[in-house]
């Protein structure tokens, strides 16, 4: 159902890989709510070709950009502004990758080249995106940037591995840049800390099935779905949340503030 919450707004969506991606679902919701969007992903991900289906549905151009490459990001913002005929109102950063997770390295035996890549792709990339936009004055006043994160930034989830450190850094950059961009241009920057969700990135984490059903049992409302995450992002891009910035916002059915649930106690007593 459309309330035209994003009517007249223009946004860039990073990270739609396939139909399961949180970014994919968010792109659809943004367009449903009246926004115009540009889609972007790493050139290697675009080769899969899946994104063209989404681009067609959203009537959106696809502009390749590796988030670790400053020239790519500059080109992305410049071309997006040309396409829109002006500044961008919102940005979704829905990007994450760890080669240590992918290759099954333990946290106590990390490969440091991989670790650098994890930090660059999953955390510094937000700084790169923001610094590029800041330099080009590419985001409009009261614009909104949302990056996706996970509660492993605050609490230990052993198999989340070096992604936990990347998410802590991502959330810190959100606060630090949120201050600077707020002062400069009233641009707001927040992270959404999402429930475990079955996507390509999510399913790469060891023991993901156990993880997802534990979270489901622990959360009074159950796990938040990708579609519900997309809805939440829409509210953050809308004018209804203008004074929210520099926050890490839990979108997890209550998981983050539940000590233990009756369902988990019952399971332990078995
Ligand atoms: N799935 C979950 O359980 C979950 C929970 C909380 C937070 N998140 C976060 O949500 C975000 C989106 O992940 P998802 O679960 O939708 O999985 P996904 O695999 O669909 O999306 C990850 C995206 O990152 C992109 N990417 C990787 N390297 C890149 C690079 N160098 N340049 C540009 N893009 C690159 C991939 O191509 C992909 O589109 C990530 O930040 C993830 O950590 C996911």
TrEMBL record:
Pathway(s) where this gene product acts: Lipid metabolism; fatty acid biosynthesis
Pfam families per the UniProt record, alphabetical: adh_short_C2 (PF13561)
Residues of the active site: 150, 160
Residues that coordinate or bind NAD(+): 15, 21-22, 66-67, 95, 167
Keyword Lipid metabolism carried by entry: yes
InterPro entries found in the cross-reference section: Enoyl-ACP_Rdtase_NADH (IPR014358), NAD(P)-bd_dom_sf (IPR036291), SDR_fam (IPR002347)
Keyword Oxidoreductase: yes
The family this protein is said to belong to: Belongs to the short-chain dehydrogenases/reductases (SDR) family. FabI subfamily.
Protein name in the entry: Enoyl-[acyl-carrier-protein] reductase [NADH]
Source organism per UniProt: Chitinophaga costaii
Lineage: Bacteria, Pseudomonadati, Bacteroidota, Chitinophagia, Chitinophagales
């Amino acid at each position: 159902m459309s309330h035209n919450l994003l009517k007249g707004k223009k946004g860039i969506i990073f990270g739609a890989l396939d139909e399961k991606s949180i970014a994919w679902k968010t792109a659809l919701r943004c367009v449903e709510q009246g926004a115009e969007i540009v889609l972007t992903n790493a050139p290697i991900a675009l080769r899969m070709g899946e994104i063209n289906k989404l681009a067609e549905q959203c009537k959106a151009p696809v502009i390749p950009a590796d988030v670790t490459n400053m020239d790519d990001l500059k080109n992305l913002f410049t071309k997006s502004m040309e396409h829109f005929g002006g500044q961008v109102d919102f940005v979704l950063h829905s990007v994450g990758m760890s080669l240590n997770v992918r290759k099954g390295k333990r946290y106590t035996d990390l490969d440091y080249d991989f670790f650098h890549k994890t930090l660059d792709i999953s955390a510094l990339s937000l700084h790169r995106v923001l610094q590029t936009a800041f330099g080009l004055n590419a985001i409009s006043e009261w614009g909104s940037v949302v990056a996706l994160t996970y509660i492993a930034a605050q609490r230990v989830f052993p198999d989340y591995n070096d992604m936990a450190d990347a998410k802590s850094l991502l959330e810190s950059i959100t606060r630090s840049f949120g201050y600077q961009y707020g002062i400069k241009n009233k641009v707001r920057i927040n992270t959404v800390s999402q429930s475990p969700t079955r996507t390509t990135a999510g399913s790469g984490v060891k023991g993901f099935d156990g993880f997802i059903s534990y979270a489901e049992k622990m959360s009074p409302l159950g796990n938040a779905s990708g579609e519900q995450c997309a809805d939440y992002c829409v509210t953050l891009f809308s004018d209804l949340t203008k004074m929210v910035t520099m926050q890490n916002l839990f979108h997890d059915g209550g998981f983050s503030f539940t000590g233990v649930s009756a369902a988990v106690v019952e399971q332990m007593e078995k």
